[in-house]
């Protein structure tokens, strides 16, 4: 069942216009049924006055999500994949079914405020150049998450982040571009890249850019989509008027090695696509990523060995 929500605004002529906004919410689950439960509770509360639909796509969870969730949320549309097809493909799989004028890709380990959707839809409706919207995010301890607003991870921006210059100059648009440090966390501004944890997109924009790039299994797909939305002539906005809690990485934290594989794999895909005309530069960056990935793997093995020894003592 749909609930109706009307936003009334005045034009300069003082004539009243009515906008009926429909929101389709897509959540991908992988072995985090309790987080999905809390997420859906907050989503349903925030959507009580909004015409909406909710999809949960399960990527072959092994935590009994299939028996646990549907009875608790009879209005939610569940889809059950037999294998883990990845984040991008799972989201794309229901796009053709969505009826909303706006699509929200939402991580399962998030909690939204009660007025979140009202404010986001109003902002997007008022900013006709807005192709996609991200919001202010905090972690479970209330600490602001810098990935709420980002710049494109160019070679320079990534290098400054890696060597720590972005921390030395946190407000610099040059050294701290990776996290758009020059933009205050309480400002509303266009940014280059939005986080996939909360990614609201106009349906007509998604039809142009064709959704997520399914070459990305996990990580990087939000960067790629953000870039393509801007290339299509729209703006990505960071909106601080509402705040969500993002507990970060609950679906992937169980295996650091698997997370390592997909994270650095996404970086390689991005570089290959972004710098395909610059072969020498592309090759150099790929080699650099492989070295950093190897160091990260060694760090994981060392940490696991330490933890194992501590556990045996």
Q: By CATH's scheme, which homologous superfamily of the largest domain applies?
A: Spore Coat Polysaccharide Biosynthesis Protein SpsA, Chain A
Sheet with the most strands?
9 strands, mixed
Question: How would you classify the helix and strand content by structural class?
Answer: alpha/beta
Number of domains: 2
Remind me, CATH topology of the largest domain? Spore Coat Polysaccharide Biosynthesis Protein SpsA, Chain A
End-to-end C-alpha gap: 57 Å
Q: Beta fraction of the residues?
A: 15-25%
User: What is the general shape?
Assistant: globular
> From the coordinates shown, what is the CATH architecture of the largest domain?
Alpha-Beta Complex
Helix proportion of residues, in percent? Answer: 25-40%
Poorly predicted parts: 1-19
Number of strands: 11
Classified by CATH, the class of the largest domain is Alpha Beta
Spatial extent as radius of gyration: 20 Å
Q: Helix segment count? A: 10
List the helices and strands and how they pair.
Elements lengths: L5 E5 L5 E5 L1 E8 L3 H14 L4 E9 L5 H4 L8 E5 L5 H6 L9 E5 L3 E2 L4 H11 L3 E9 L16 H8 L2 H4 L20 E3 L6 E5 H7 L11 H11 L3 E12 L9 H19 L4 H34 L1
Parallel strand pairs: 3-4, 3-6, 4-5, 8-11
Antiparallel strand pairs: 1-2, 6-10, 7-11, 8-10, 9-11
Helix pairs in contact: 9-10
Describe this structure in words.
The protein has 313 residues and is of the alpha/beta class. It has 2 domains: 6-149 and 185-246, Spore Coat Polysaccharide Biosynthesis Protein SpsA, Chain A; 256-312. The protein is 38% helix and 22% strand. The protein is built from 10 helices and 11 strands. It has helices at residues 33-46, 65-68, 87-92, 116-126, 155-162, 165-168, 203-209, 221-231, 256-274, 279-312, and strands at residues 6-10, 16-20, 22-29, 51-59, 77-81, 102-106, 110-111, 130-138, 189-191, 198-202, 235-246. Strands 3, 4, 5, 6, 7, 8, 9, 10 and 11 form a 9-stranded mixed β-sheet that branches. A two-stranded antiparallel sheet has the order 1-2. It is globular, with a radius of gyration of 20 Å.
């Amino acid at each position: 069942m749909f609930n109706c929500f009307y936003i009334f605004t005045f034009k300069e002529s003082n004539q009243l216009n009515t906008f009926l906004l429909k929101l389709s919410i897509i959540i991908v689950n992988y072995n985090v049924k309790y987080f999905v439960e809390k997420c859906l509770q907050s989503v349903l509360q925030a959507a009580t006055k909004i015409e909406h639909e909710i999809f949960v796509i399960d990527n072959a969870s092994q935590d009994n999500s299939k028996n646990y969730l549907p009875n608790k949320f009879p209005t939610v549309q569940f889809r059950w994949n037999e294998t883990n097809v990845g984040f991008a493909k799972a989201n794309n799989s229901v796009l053709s079914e969505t009826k909303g004028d706006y699509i929200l890709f939402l991580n399962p380990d998030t909690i939204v405020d009660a007025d979140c959707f009202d404010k986001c839809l109003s902002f997007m409706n008022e900013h006709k150049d807005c192709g996609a919207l991200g919001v202010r995010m905090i972690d479970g301890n209330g600490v602001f998450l810098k990935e709420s607003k980002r710049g494109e991870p160019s070679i320079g921006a990534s290098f400054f982040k890696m060597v720590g210059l972005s921390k030395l100059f946190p407000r610099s648009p040059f050294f701290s571009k990776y996290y758009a440090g020059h933009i205050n966390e309480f400002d509303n501004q266009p940014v280059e890249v939005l986080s996939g944890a909360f990614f609201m997109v106009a349906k007509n924009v998604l039809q142009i850019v064709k959704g997520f790039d399914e070459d990305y299994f996990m990580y990087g797909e939000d960067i790629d989509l953000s870039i393509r939305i801007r290339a299509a002539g729209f703006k990505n906005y960071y909106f601080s008027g509402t705040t969500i809690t993002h507990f970060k990485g609950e679906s992937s934290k169980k295996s650091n090695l698997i997370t390592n594989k997909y994270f650095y794999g996404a970086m390689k895909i991005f570089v290959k696509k972004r710098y395909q005309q610059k072969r020498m530069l592309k090759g150099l960056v790929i080699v650099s990523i492989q070295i950093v990935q190897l160091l990260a793997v060694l760090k994981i093995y060392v940490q696991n060995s330490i933890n194992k020894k501590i556990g045996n003592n």
